Amino acid sequence: MLKSKFKRALILETYHSNENVEYFLDETKALCLTANFEPVVSILYKLKNKDSTFFIGRGKIEEIKKIILENEIEAVVIDDEVDPHFFRFLSEFWNVELIDKSSLIISIFAKRASTKQGKLQVELARLNYLLSQTSGWGKILSRLGGGIGTRGPGETKKEIDKRTLSLKISRLKNEIKLIEKRNKIIKKKRNISNFPNISLVGYTNAGKSTLMNVLTNSTVLVRDQLFSTLDTKTAIIKFNDDTKVFLTDTVGFIRKLPHRLIEAFKATLSQISESNFLLHVVDASKPIEIIKQDIKSVNEVLKEINSNDIPSILVFNKIDKCTNLTNVHELAELYKPYCFISAITGYGIDKLLEKIKYFLYPNRIIIKIFLPHEKTKIINLIKNFSGKILEKEWSTSGVKIILDIPQDYADFLNDYII
Ligand SMILES: Nc1nc2c(ncn2[C@@H]2O[C@H](COP(=O)(O)OP(=O)(O)OP(=O)(O)O)[C@@H](O)[C@H]2O)c(=O)[nH]1
Ligand SMILES: [Mg+2]
Predict the structure, then answer these.
(1) Which CATH number is 7-99's, of 3.30.1360.30, 3.40.50.11060, 3.40.50.880, 3.30.565.10?
(2) 80, 82, 109, 122: least buried by Cβ within 10 Å?
(3) What does the entry list as the binding residues for GTP (predicted)?
(4) Ligand 1 mutation pick, 228, 251, 269, 298, max ligand atoms within 8 A of CB
């Protein structure tokens, strides 16, 4: 039995194509439970076209109102971003607490944050969210342009709220900056910047922290729940020959991760953008279509934090749970470079360590290849193998490339060597 602290919720799961919608609904249910909402009713709602923002018609709004009354619903959770005007209209019409993707994840982050930096960043995301909700309250404030603390003629309470929010936001940003500065000094003292830095990235619950513990003998919290890790932790991987690298565990990503959260977590996420190499951990026990979607969602966030050009390896984890070997074959075909592991049983960990070591200290060779036009997509793969393009010469039939690449990684280009 769920305790009464859980509010009775209706989930409105929006989607564009039927594919995987049930799986995404399960994910939203898990997020709801994490944020103390009990999913009582779920409604799948197909959005008109791919780029349309969330919008539902009058008929559906009234139908949902009826369901709310019949089921004593206290909150409606929409797995999407909702325009602030429409948001206000819906919450008033339905007379319930309305939760969109941003507020749902922010409330979970608020529960999880444990360090000062984490707490400040969540608060920043929350205030930015509130500020965005005030849009449309009038442009008088910007026109008045009064000095800080002064109250312009005709300002309403909402406008003052908006002004207070903006002030709090800039104070918080300054506080976060100070912590960042302090962290940089500590990092310098610990000599972290003199050693290679690797970060664990990946979808939430993929097993990043479990892998962190295995590789560095740490005791980072591991839980079968979404967003267990919110604050970064850095520890050392020591190889047999005494070489060492720093490994950082960080916050997991999720489908449709709200942009303002990424903005607020810049300080935490900068650990990733400053890395030399990324271990992109993937839960390989999920259905193949979901795995592809997870990888895509993570890559989208990496792009947003300017980290998509950092060399990476896909670490397919939870291989002990994979009953379907076709998954394994398809993943090996689709993604490179990769490694299959189980952070729980230890399977593949030695190989992964070898690959990390090799990436950091490779024997590099210089090769010349020719790619016909239909194969030029391969160029995008070169950086994943930490290859450096030295020269590129296009012709009518394709492109001639001279590149510097680790010897062991050059295999995938064997067919194109000239
Ligand atoms: N079967 C199996 N379970 C695993 C494996 N690795 C991790 N898990 C489980 O997956 C769950 C999530 O693990 P975490 O290490 O907390 O995942 P995470 O990626 O750090 O998650 P967040 O911090 O929430 O982003 C836990 O219940 C782990 O025990 C594995 O190799 N096999
Ligand atoms: Mg974790």
Answers:
(1) 3.40.50.11060
(2) 80
(3) 202-209, 227-231, 249-252, 317-320
(4) 228
